[in-house]
# Entry
Amino acid sequence: TGPLYSIAIDYGYGFLWQRPGLSRRHRFICAIASFTALGLDTQVAKFAISAERQDLTRSQVVEVVMQVAPYNGFPRSLNALALIDAGNA
# Structure
């Protein structure tokens, strides 16, 4: 991952997450919803943990995943919920 990882971190958490208009809480909601919709379980797990440490309760993280289920497909949301329930997120 080398240089690409640091570029992604600098851009994603430096530039994008510092823009005005959304709170950190809202940014976590967007990220968890997007990663769930894309079926990116590793990222769902990591961001769910980070969200719980920062701004959201576990029940709120679960609710985000449930809210996107009709749009991204129930299997993807069920997979994300299984990660969260298993304590991996």
Summary: The mean pLDDT is 90. DSSP finds five helices and no strands in the chain.
